[in-house]
Amino acid sequence: MSRLILFNKPFGVLCQFSGDGARLTLKDFVAVPGVYPAGRLDTDSEGLLLLTDDGRLQHRIADPRHKAPKVYLVQVEGTADESALASLRRGLDLGDFVSRPCEAERVDEPGWLWPRDPPVRFRRSIPTSWLRIVLREGKNRQVRRMTARVGHPTLRLIRTQIGGWSIAGLAPGEWRDGDPAGEDARGRVPALDG
54 catalytic, yes or no? Predict the structure, then answer.
């Protein structure tokens, strides 16, 4: 039987089990032998990371050809207007690739959100806004590159959902077993339920 772990990766944690000794890695949180990440999250990103001991399942989750939607909550610098959102939705030329069309909308800061450690730098003269972005691909630092391209650099990035799995009920650094079939018995993240 395949094992699937849903992990809420904290900010600053390397998305691997080995490290340089100076930074926290997955082994500091998930003491389960034989599981590996299905996809990645940058060190400065937070949220849902799936780990499994099944190579086929790992491929199905990580491969963009399977089009599992990945949902991100993104705090950006400035107030993203409809023009910026439309550009995100259409897809953007990021130099080495053109992003596929995606979903992008402004949302309120979620009430369930935990404080980040260290906090995002606050600047009184520059407002921030929150976006919900849904991708069906996942290139290196893609969301950050997309928001920067439309003039709103990312300040905080949290992946809340991959396909039917979500971080609902998981505090940063916590994990639970999930259903490899793709259903998350805990349900969706409250802010995404409409």
Answer: no
